[in-house]
Design brief:
Strand content: under 5%
Mean pLDDT: 76
Number of strands: 2
Structural class: mainly alpha
Radius of gyration: 36 Å
Shape: rod-shaped
Largest sheet: 2 strands, antiparallel
Amino acid sequence: MSENNRKEQNLKARRRRRKRDRDNNSKPAVAAAVICAIAVLLIGRLFSLQVIHGREYLTEFQDSIQRKITEPGAISMTATEICSPIMRRSGISSCGMRPARTRTAMRS
């Protein structure tokens, strides 16, 4: 009887080890699935922000950084609208006063 008991205990121990080994083998697969799911969500969100709603966000940002200049009795204009006639006359590319054309230095 003790021999049968021992065989039964060994069989149960082997079954427990197999179950434990199966459980440990599935952990990397679960981790990989979670990482893939997170990557898909991030890529979807980036696509949504850049491709689908990119132009809306750009115009909202540009509107938020432009300063409106108003004078009593004058039409409301942005700084770019005020600078553009001056820039066209003097050949300046932006209100940052950078020249539109590059000049070469004289050779000696």
